[in-house]
């Protein structure tokens, strides 16, 4: 049971760090355009040249 004296504060510290990281990401706009990256990945930006028929 002595190990709980170490583990409980460690768990609270890690939870606080996670919360701080999440709040930082909200403040910096990381969740503004959630679908944009997915659409950019499948967008066809290059013009596709037609291959001549044989």
Describe this protein with a few key phrases.
single chain; 54 residues; mainly alpha; 0% strand; elongated
Task: Give a nutshell description of this structure.
It comes from Bradyrhizobium ottawaense. The protein is mostly helical. Helix content is 59%, strand content 0%.
Description:
- The protein has 54 residues and is an all-alpha fold.
- The protein has one domain.
- Helix content is 59%, strand content 0%.
- The protein contains two helices and no strands.
- The chain is elongated, with a radius of gyration of 24 Å.
- It starts with a helix and ends in a 12-residue tail after the last helix.
- The model has no long low-confidence stretch (mean pLDDT 88).
- Pfam families: FixS.
Structural class: mainly alpha
Query: Which segments are poorly predicted (pLDDT under 50) over 5 or more consecutive residues?
Result: none
The helix/strand series, from N terminus to C terminus, equals HH
| Gap from first CA to last CA | 79 Å
Helix content: 55-70%
Oligomer: single chain
User: Quick check: average pLDDT?
Assistant: 88
């Amino acid at each position: 049971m002595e190990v709980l004296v170490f583990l409980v504060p460690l768990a609270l510290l890690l939870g606080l760090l996670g919360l701080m990281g999440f709040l930082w990401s909200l403040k910096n706009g990381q969740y503004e355009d959630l679908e944009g990256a997915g659409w950019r990945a499948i967008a066809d930006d290059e013009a596709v040249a037609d291959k001549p028929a044989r």
